Every structure is written in structure tokens, then in C-alpha cells.
Amino acid sequence: MTTAPFPTTLAPVKRVSLLRRFMRKPLGVTALVLFLIVVALAVFAPLFAKFDPNHVDFNLVHAVPGTDGHLLGGDTAGRDLYSRLLYGARTTLWGALITCVAGLVLGVPAGVSAGYFAGGTVDKVCSWISDALQSVPALIVLLVVAAGTGQSFPIMMISLGVFLAPGYYRISRARAMSVRREPYIDAARVSGMTNGRIIRTHMLRAVYAPLVVQSALTAGIAIGMQAGLQFLGIGSASTPSWGQMMNDGFINITAFPIILLWPSIILGVTIATLAFMGSTLGDLISVRAEQPTRKLRAKARQVMLTPPAAADLPTRQTSGMHAHSVEGCALRVDNLRIGYATKDGGVKEVVRGVSLDAAPGEVLGIVGESGSGKTQTSFAVLDLLPAGGTAVADGIWIAGKEVGHLPTAERAALLGREIGYVPQEPMTNLDPCYTIERQLVEPLHRVHGMSKADAAKRAREMLVRVGITDPDRVLRSYPHQISGGMAQRVLIAGAVSGRPSLLIADEPTTALDVTVQAEVLELLRELQQEYGMALMIVTHNFGVVADICDRVVVMKDGRIVETGAVERIFRNPEDPYTAELISASLDDVEGRHELDEAWSAGPTGSAGPAGHSTAHAGGEDGAR
Amino acid sequence: MLSFIGKRLLSGIFLLLVVTSGTFFLAHVAIGDPTQGLLGNSATPAQSAALRTKIGYDDPLLVQFWNWLSHAVTGDFGKSWRSFQPVNDQLGRSIPITLSIVVFSLIISVVFGAVIGIVCGLRPGGWLDRVLKVASVVLFALPGFWISIQLVMLFAVNLKWFPSVGYVSPSVSFVGWIETITLPSISLALGAIVMIAEQLRNGFIEVANQDFVRTLRARGLPRRRVTTHVLRNASPAALTVLALMFVGLLGGAVIVELVFNMYGIGRYTQQSSQIGDIPSLLGVTAVTVAFVVVVNFLLDLVLGWVNPKVRER
Questions:
Q1: Taking CB atoms and an 8 Å limit, are B37 and A423 in contact across chains?
Q2: Closest to B202 (Cβ–Cβ): which among A289, A434, A442?
């Protein structure tokens, strides 16, 4: 989200480090070395193999390895297997190269152009051709081609390249499309670069790394297909090839299985090395979603539970304070810390000792800029931290009961019953595959044990309650068919339909239009009073705090800097950071003016201009 | 929904038309005068001329194409230039064999691929996930015929668990049928299993980290119900792969059949290719592409049912 505006020099730098990073992967290096050995054997075949691969010697028919200096013995026709294997490597690699080049030449320019002009005619035509090629069994068409040109090996391999071009096409198109949206491409256009030049310089550079991966895969597939065709008897009989050798060995599989062994090994190894090279490189440019292992998470938890050293104690003490007694709390959090396991086995703490509480019927605001840990705190109360996150606390109380040390399943049982949750971004928080009705009814039916008919009735009532005027249409709709404001009302209906004692709302108005924001806040206020819920509302906006909150907690860098009643905080903020946040949120001109002056005098702390702009633009939280 | 179905159907028919006419002209350009391949080198010019007249090769190419196409749309693929038997008879004998292998391997790969994919998606970084990661690299790359040869070597030649060659029709012996198609199907399925599993696993993890999953859990839904939601959202990617895989399985079956000495469309295509028997080649192409079109169409319907947004395209 916070990319530097014009990283035009990114690609070349990446190229060097990519090779270096590849060299640090043992599996990738082993595969590369083995592959280079095969290449060397092929290139220097005349040096390594002293026998003519096509010379027939009747004494050598089915000869065992070692006969008369023939390292691997002889085949059915009495030819030296070792020589044929090496010369076969030449055929194989040459063929794979032809196929890859054909695929690259056809797929990449088409893919980059299609991605750059996505949605245009070029894109539509090329994508249709690509899809069509992928729905034709290539081998059958190749046999049609072979019918007339069976002896012409390059034509076969070029034809194969045509069928593998969609792989290149899809990758280049997808990459070009994502690069197309980068600001530096716009900058290049504004500065007067032609489309052709942008495609040549910027786009092709961006697709470079994925294409290397794709080429490794394509070469592997090409080698396999080629061997298959040769196994079927396609290709010149006078050119030694692995497929032919496998066919010869397969015919004699019961009597002389060893003939089959050599080409099987070298074919399998060559294909596997290409596959591993491709996958190692692919991992480096990250294709597979990896998550911290259980071990790392357990370790992170252990680190966080370790008592701090005496020297660290001042910074490890809890921040914030409690306003109510333990028994009278709807929510109480004592010394909460949240950490994420890093790949090298360490822990990154994002919340460092937070204590707060809220009484039934009270509205507590948690205010702070992006990355202050306010959203993480609310996830920890829900026990729904993203993967890799661990929370430890001296205690978490919900409705007067300590739940922080309960097992996961019992914590989960509180959700939907004691605790309701209203998320930030309404459009991504509804399941796109189900109707609104289904999504409202399912929890009522499954969690609260209502019959489906009762649940449907309740869902409709709830929609009416949250101010939706045509509930029946909304119930039938899928999430993408309703507006953001409507979706947020649906989510609020879902959150309060279980009559929770605590409602946690994470930036509930940030993603909405200004006109809808006030209505949604008003709705939350009404529901909170109607049901007597405690409401914990996470926001970056002091305007929201002023509108709805009773008390407020100000967070910064994972710690609480100030807690207090709203009026007091607005009138007399104790912490300079609170004062800064308040003036940044106020809408009157004077406030901003003062702030500008404060900046020109020199920004204080981490809340400089960058912090200010993100806090104002809002929306994105660091942990997302 | 209806217009969605109609569009997919039309696009399928268009594809079928393009591919078959493409193959027609490609075959004619590649093969040229077919009589030498059909009759062998010893044929006299008079024999060649007679054959050319008999198969209608002297007609202009477009006339030949029209003749072929107008019959093909009625399901009649003409007669072989070699045996003068109807191509349909040959197809009727060979297609059940190929389809047995392809469908059986499809079932194996969907079942195993789905189970492995879900388990790995639920526990990324677990032992099965790590095995899948390595296995998917190797098994995806290795061609089916290579795997089938190794399996024959191990299970048919060394262990003698399965017959190494031949095909038994289910109408003759059901057990014999299963026995003969098991090894070829497994050979083809191994690559497909890891492809589906990997796709489903990645989709699963991606969806599981999306906002709406947290919200579903925050409503108190039990884990199993949440998994259902995740799975439904993750399945389109795996279904798309399934369409590609069906094509791959058909192609792979062509060679694997030969390893197991089965007279499926692979052997039929290979023999027709060697002698330049264009009507047979066209028949095989048209029927296989038709299968692909039908499978893609069915998958589109499933996709449309799974994902409401697809329907509106």
C-alpha cells in the first residue's frame, strides 16, 4: 500500500539478488548442477562417448554393461547405449530449447500487449486463442502434424511450442496487468513515452523473473512430450533419442529390463532438475502461500511469556488503566501483549502491555494512527488474531468472567453470544458466494439453535431494525449486489442478532461515504442503548469519538498513552500526542493552521507528516 | 443464468468448429498427397490415381471440406481412407477404452486431490503439506507415460499384481476391467492429484485469510461450517484447473494406452497418423475436442452455481 512513488530501477537490482538468493537454496543449486551436467554431457557428447551411436555391432545385441568397454552395454539392434544416451541428450535439449523459444516468441509479446491493453480487442482475441489452444489435446494435433512431417523434428517441436505458448501468455498478461496499475507506468505515459516503448522497457522487465520460472516448467513438459512422441515412433530413426531408447527397452521389459533403466533415469532426472529449479525460483518470487509453522508460533509464545529482564522492566510494564471494578465490567483487559512470529524464529511485538476496561452500557473509543495496535487489540479480545499472531495477557474478562486463560474452543463459544463484531470494510466482510439471507440465518440457526423459519423471520426483523427499507430484496441479494452502506447495516444486524453484551466495532465508518457515516454511527449508538451493550469502537478519527464515545483510550506504537473521559480529553489532553491527534481530526480551518505551524517548527516523535497523512486517509491498518 | 448457459454453449460450439476446420486444413497442408502413405512405395501411378478419385481427393479443398463438415455435423465422420470402414465404427471401439482410463483417473485425482488439498490447507506447514510441496514439483513435471512405465516395471513385471497389458471390457468382466484400467489410470492421475491438491491448498489458505472468514468466526460459527464457506470460495480455482486437466489426461492417455497395449484412440490416432488417414484423424480430433467442450461446459455450470458473480458475466 505504501509503495514509493517511482521505483523505476527496481527490476535490475532484483535480478542480481534473485540469482544470489537462488544460490543459497541447496535444492535449487543441486538441481542446477545436475542440469548443467546433463547440458555438458550433451554439448561434449563426442568427447565423452567414443562409439558411434548408430553403429550396429551384432556382438553388442542386448549386451550387459561393461562388455568390451561399452559402459552401459548394447540395445536390441546392437548399438552402444552410453553413446546413444549422450547423443540423445543433444536431441532432447535442442528440442526443449526450440519449444521454449517458440512459446516465448508467441506468448510473451501477445501477453504483455494484452495485459497492457486489458479488456481491449487485442486482449479479447489473444485470450480466446489462448483458451482455445488450452482446450485442444496437443498430442492428438501433434500426431496430425506428424502425419505429414514426421521426420521433421524442429517442426514438431515448434508445434509443441505453439501449444505451450498459453502458459507464457497467461503469466505475461497477468504480470503486465498488475504493473499497468503501478504509478510509475502512469508517470512514463505522462512524460510522453509511447505505448510501444513502455511495453518494451518497463513491461518486459517486469515479467522477466516469472518467465524464467515458466521456461523451466515448459522445458520439463517439452522434454516429457518429446520423449512421448519418440516413444510412439515419431521422429527420425537415425537420430538417437531417449524416447526411442525407452521404447526399445519397454519392448524387452521382461527379458532385458536394464535397457529401459538408463533412459528412464536420465529422463526422470532431467525433468526433475528443471522442475526443482523452477519451483525454487518460483518460491523466491513467492507463488506459494507460506505460513509460520506451529513450532515457530509456539516458540514465539514462549518468548513472550518469558519474564522480562530487570533492565527491560520499565518498557515492559503495562500501560493504560482501569476505571471500573472487575465484577462490574463488560470488558476488562489486563496487560495484553501481542506478537507475531517472524521467519527467523524471533517475535515482533505489535501491542506491548495494554490495560483497559468498559462497563455495560458504556462506549469506549480506542484511538490511534495506523499501526498503533488498536485493531490488533480488538482481534485479541475476539481471540481471532491473524495467522502467526499470539496474544498473552494477565487477564481478559468478558461480562465479568475471566476468559483469557480458557482453551480456544471455549473462547470461540463466546463469539456471537457474548461478543459481537462489526468489521471495517463492509464489502470484503460478507461471503461473496452466499445470499445475505443465508449469511444472517446460518449463525442464528447453528449458534443460537433457532429453527430455520424462526431464524429467517428474525433476520428480516433485524434488517428492518438497522434501517433497511426493502429487506426482502436485500435478503435475496448477493453481497456484490448491494451498496457499501447497506452491507455495513447487514453486518451490524448480524453482529447484534445474537444479543451480545459486548460489541466490538473496528473502524465501522471508515470505508463508507461521508453521508452514510453519521447514520451508521447513530445506528450503533441506538442499538447500544437499546440492548445495554458495552461498545468498544476502534477509530483513527476523533470526530467519531466526539460523536459517540463516553471514554477514550489513545494508543501509539502498541502502548496506551492516555485514558480518560471524552470531555476531559478534548478539553485538556495530557499527552502531546493526544493533542496532535485531536487537532489533526478537527475540521475547522484554525486547527489545521495551527498544526501546519507546529510542523514547520519541526515534527515531534513519530507523528510527523507521514503519520498525519496516513491517519487522515485512514482505512488501512498496518497488520492487514 | 439462461443467457450465461447460452453464451457458454455457443462459445463451445464455435471452438469445436474452429479446431476441427483448423485440423482439416493443417492435415491437408502437412500430408499433401496421401496416396503414397496409404498404398506404400510400390504403388503404380494408376493405382494412386484410382485411390485419389475414390476418396474424393481430386475435388477442390473447399469442396472436400464442405463434404466433410456437412456430414460431420450429423455425426457421420466418413470412411477411413485405408480400410474404407466407417470412422464411427472405429471410434465406437476405441473411445470407451480411452474414456474408461480418463474418467477413472479423473475420479481418482478429484477424490485424492480434494482430500489432500483440504488437509494441507487446514494445516499448512504440516508433514503432509511438506510432502505435497515436493511431490507436486516432481509429479507435475514427469510425463504420464514415464510414470506408467515405472509402474508396469514395479507392479506388473516384478510384483505381478496387475496384468501388464491389454484391456477387458466391463461387459465381459467387471473385475477384469477394473484390473486392466487401474495401473494406467493411476499413472495419469498422480500428476493430476498433486495439481488439484496444490491449487485447492493455495486457494484455501488465501480465502482463509480473507476478512469475511474472520467475521464468520466472530459470529460464532463452528469451525466445520466456516470451512464449508472457505471451501466454496476456494473451489473455483481448483475447478478451472480441472478443465485444463481433462485435456491433459486425454493427451496423456494417448501414450499411456500404448504402454499398456490397449486399442484406444491413442493407437488409432498413431496408426492413422503414420499412413496419413485424414478422415480418421479428423474424427478423433472432433470427438476429443467435443468431449473437452462438454466437460468445460459442465464445469462452467458448476462454477456459475458456486460463484454468483460468474453468472452475470
A1: no
A2: A289
**Domains of chain B: which residue ranges?**
94-259
Q: Which helix (H) or strand (E) segment is A211 a member of?
A: helix A204-231
| pTM recorded for the entire structure | 0.80
A253/B214 touch (CB, cutoff 8 Å), yes or no: no
Residue range A278-290: mean pLDDT, rounded: 71
Residue-by-residue DSSP string for B214-280: HHHHHTT--HHHHHHHHHHHHHHHHHHHHHHHHHHHHHHHHHHHHHTT--SHHHHHHHHHHHT-HHH
Q: Kindly tell me if the per-residue pLDDT of B42 is higher than 80.
A: no
- Per-residue pLDDT of A235-253, as tens digits, reads 777 788 888 888 888 888 7
Nearest CA in chain B to A385: B214
Cβ A147–B233 below 8 Å, yes or no? no
> Which chain A residue lies closest to B14 (C-alpha atoms)?
A132
Percent of chain A with pLDDT over 70: 86
pLDDT at A70: 67
Reported ipTM = 0.85
Which residue in the set A138, A260, A498 is minimally distant from B220, CB to CB?
Answer: A498
Per the model's pLDDT, the better-predicted residue between A10 and A172 turns out to be A172
User: Which of B31, B141, B258 is opposite residue A232, by nearest beta carbon?
Assistant: B258
Return the percent helix, strand and coil in chain B, to nearest 5. Answer: 80, 0, 20
Q: Same structural domain for residues A139 and A239?
A: yes
Is A483 found in the same domain as A379?
yes
DSSP B71-109: HHTTT---B-TTT-SBHHHHHHHHHHHHHHHHHHHHHHH
Q: Is residue A347 part of a domain?
A: no
Assigned architecture for domain B94-259: Orthogonal Bundle (1.10)
Tell whether A292 is covered by a domain. no
Task: State which residues form the domain around A478.
Answer: 361-572
A259 and A404 both lie in a single domain: no
Q: Looking at the 3D structure of chain A, how many domains does it have? A: 2
Q: Is residue A293 part of a domain?
A: no
Same domain, A368 and A455: yes
Domain at A433, CATH number: 3.40.50.300
Cβ distance of B214 and A217 shorter than 8 Å: no
